[in-house]
Amino acid sequence: MTMSDTQRDTGSTPRRRISGHMGPFELAFFVIAAAGPLLVVAGFAPLAFMIGGIGAPGAQLVASIVLLLFAVGLTRMALRIKNAGAFYSYIGQGLGRPLGAGAATLALGAYSVIAIGQLGAVGAFALLPMNDLFGIDLPWWVYSFIALAIVAFLGHRQISLSAKVLGVALLTEAGILLILAVPVLLQGGAEGFDLAPFEPSAVFAGGGTGAMFAIVFGAFIGFESTAIYSEEARDPERTVPRAVYLAVGFLGIFYTFMAWVVYVAFGKSQIVVAATEDPVGLVFTAMDQYVGSGAVTVMEVLLVTSAFASTLAFHNTASRYMFTLSRERMLPTALAKVHPKHHSPFAASGLQVTLAAVALVLFVLAGADPYLQVFLLMVAPGVLTVIVLQALCSLAIVTYFRRTPGHGHSVWSTTVAPLLSLAGLAVASWLIIDNFDLLSGRTDWVNWLLLGTLPVAFAVGLLRALWLRRTAPQHYEQLTQTNVF
């Protein structure tokens, strides 16, 4: 480790490393909170039932298996490539620096716009409980800007504080859903227990199956970001892989279980009808029926905190991507400044806050709807981007280990599992593109505009890398090479 890598603040010389002491559970809190379990169960599972039928719980299980296979190769790469760039570094070392740079700008754009989009969800979800509980009737953007101010404060400070906030949010939203599960299981639901949702004939029933899988795969985004926090993890060689498996395991089990609980609550003959008639209120109706109206109010409040936790998690991910890329001169080096006291990437965090504030102002001036336009239009391309990057990363894992002799890992973990995940993620990517209107809420030219931003963002990074190769070869050779542990 060179002096330039570990240099402390002296005068105007910035630190080049951020630091923290997160364990695997704290790190897992970040990626699980980013996925927003309550938002997924209450907002996306009903759509899966409405579109794909009773096989939604089985589809969640299939998606979790594919992503668990992806995690096998991902953790092996995390042990070999000690760079906080995640997609950027893994794809760069597996498929070449230019493609890695393209993946970097694509990932940065995805995480940044998802963080901004979730601010719209905070504003949209806060309107009802604030009015019902306190009689406060304010525009949605007031709540969004309050959330952004809190994110700015937490993003400026050391990561451990954000981890504690996310941990509380995660436990409360998971807790309210488990409170629903208890009476449903004790009472046997509307028609008793059965495992029909897991039968292949239900999961792959045709018709809306493709659209259903597009929805359930999107529920897992964020878990791959664990490697981004490697500098702030305690014993990262152990912490990062454990956090990956904790996140994927929890999300897979929790999503599948809760989708099945909702299915049992309404019964085989009524779940699709109920989801079709009121997809937005499906889980709230079950909560009111089995627990009571008080629990519905609590869930409405926790839906706000779930969206806030998600925007905080993605904000931290985006700012760390900016920090990593600026340290390797893909972005202006000013973004690589580290706070002398909190050891946080405060400059990158400040830029992400500024981008979010500008975007919110533009949405407000345009009279945008906080859910249909701020949330859906920002999050939809981000979801697709992350899944496409996961597929590229699977290919990079196979390529990297095939040309790296003596790596000490099994064929299963470096070839078979990544190839299986590549196949599943490639299919998922196509299904999302083919059913993109379900994620964006639009059926017009806007979808083509949103989809068109992906190759443009990729091209920006690729061309930047090629420019460095031509004009600053010494910097080009350092891309993806900065070791952080």
For this structure, the CATH topology is Amino acid/polyamine transporter I
CATH homologous superfamily (4th level) name: Amino acid/polyamine transporter I
For the record, what CATH class applies? Mainly Alpha
Sheet/helix structural class:
mainly alpha
Beta-strand percentage range: under 5%
Task: Describe the protein in words.
The chain has 485 residues and is an all-alpha fold. It has a single domain (3-476), classed as Amino acid/polyamine transporter I. It contains 20 helices and no strands. The chain has helices at residues 3-6, 24-35, 37-52, 56-80, 87-95, 97-134, 140-156, 159-187, 200-203, 209-218, 236-266, 271-277, 282-290, 293-327, 346-365, 370-402, 411-434, 436-440, 445-471, 473-476. Helix 16 crosses helix 19 (445-471). The longest helix has 38 residues, at 97-134.
SSE blueprint:
Blueprint lengths: L2 H4 L17 H12 L1 H16 L3 H25 L6 H9 L1 H38 L5 H17 L2 H29 L12 H4 L5 H10 L17 H31 L4 H7 L4 H9 L2 H35 L18 H20 L4 H33 L8 H24 L1 H5 L4 H27 L1 H4 L9
Features:
74% helix; 485 residues; mainly alpha; Amino acid/polyamine transporter I; single chain; disordered N terminus; globular
Give a short synopsis of this structure:
The protein has 485 residues and is mainly α.
